[in-house]
Amino acid sequence: MRAQDIRRTLQREFVRTLRRPFMDAVQEYGLVQAGDRVAVCISGGKDSMLLALLMQDLQRTVDCTLVFLAMDPGYTPAGRAQLEDNARQLGLPLEVFGTDVLRVAANHAAEHPCFLCAKMRRGHLYAAAQARGCNKIALGHHYDDAIETVLMGLLYGGQVQAMLPRVRAKNYENMELIRPLYFVREREVQAWADFCGLTFLPCDCPAKARGGDTKRAEIKALIAALAAENPQVEANILNAVKNVDTAKILGWRDGNGRHSFLDRL
Fold first, then answer.
1. Given 50, 90, 183, 216, which residue has the most CB atoms within 10 angstroms?
2. In this structure, are residues 37 and 52 in contact, taking their beta carbons and an 8 Å threshold?
3. What is the pLDDT tens value at each position of the chain, 265 positions in all?
4. Where exactly are the structural domains of the chain?
């Protein structure tokens, strides 16, 4: 399928399941404003490639500048070639820069590399985007990523937290991270990729290379099993971090430190 035909699917077959929830997130959370210069971060997977096309579509109604930025964390030559070929197929003017994130994560956090890998990737992307005059980086995290993060924090981190759709960078002045696919379901992204006959770069995560499931994969399977019994479960997970009743929690922390419900008695 040609690039222009692939783009048209977002106005036709997938307008309700992809373009509309994308626009809903952009508008509800104020993710992109006129005058923004956004680095659209391309990992090579289906989510970030879709994000790139939707961000280009957004330029028809919002006067913003886009930079399509891909970090090579240590792909094989074949992986790097596939990333670049897909960008050409979709008509994306991709800038690629190299790092050794995968090697470092595998060497220094061999058993649980995900946290270190994600932190290093984000740092490199912020720095590269800032060097190109961008004030925002856009990542391809979607609805399923968001609800998985809630359960991962609860079950494995012992904390209630959300993957926010918009975050101000702590270490990079005047920079924000945005997640425009926040309301988009992963299954709909896969349906689009299948419809268009697109094959994307598989994950090069060191944990997967060892043949074991990551904690996120375990959480994904758990949510799927629960949702099979009650389809409302997925929405309830995200709603739980939208409707926190602070009068009914044992404790919390903010910029002023840690607090207990006992402080209110």
1. 50
2. no
3. 889 999 999 999 999 999 999 999 999 999 999 999 999 999 889 999 999 999 999 999 999 999 999 998 888 888 889 899 999 999 999 999 988 777 776 666 556 666 777 788 888 899 999 999 999 999 999 999 999 999 999 999 999 999 999 999 999 999 999 999 999 999 999 999 999 999 887 665 555 555 445 788 899 999 999 999 999 999 999 999 999 998 899 999 998 999 999 999 9
4. 3-209
Q: Is residue 135 a contact partner of residue 174, using CB atoms and an 8 Å limit?
A: yes
DSSP-based helix, strand, coil % in the chain, nearest 5 = 50, 15, 35
Specify the length of the chain in residues: 265
Q: Which CATH fold topology does 3-209 show?
A: Rossmann fold (3.40.50)
